[in-house]
Amino acid sequence: MNRNEQRLFSLYFFSGFGVILASVSLFAVLLWQFDFVTIEGSGLIWGLLLLVLLLSGAHFAGLKLFFSRMLEPLNRLNDALQAFETGRELELRGSTFTRNLITSINRLNTAYRELRQSTDARIAEANEKLEREKRTLATLISELHSGVILCSGEGRITLYNPVIEEMAADAQVKARLGLGKNIRGLFDAGLIDYLFEESRTLLGSGSKALSAAVSYAPSGDLVRLSLIPVSTTEESEAWLLIMRNIAPEMRQAAGRDTLLKQLSEQVRASVASIRAAGENLSEYPDMPAAMRQNFVGVIEDEAGRLGSQVTQVLGEYEQTYRSYWPKDPVLLSEFLQNFRQRAASLTALEVTLPDAHSANIIRVDTYALLLTLLSLQTRISEALGEKSVKLHVTERENLCEIRMLTSGMLRERNEQLLQRWLAEKPSLAGSAHPVEAGEILDRHDAEVWIKTKRELSDAPQTELCIVLPSEKPAASEIHPAGTKAESTTANPAGPAASRPVYYDFEIFLQSKTSPELADAKLSELSFTVFDLETTGLNPSIGDEIISFGGIRILNSRLLTHDTFDALCKPSRPVSPESTAIHGITNEMLTGKPPVTEVLPAFHAWCENSVLVGHNIAFDLRFLKMLEKRSGLSFTQPALDTLLLSSVLFPDAEAHGLEVLCAKFGITVKGRHSALGDAIATAEVFAYLIPLLAERGITTLAQARELSKDSHFNMLKY
Question: Which residue in 59, 392, 479, 672 is the catalytic one?
Answer without folding.
Answer: 672
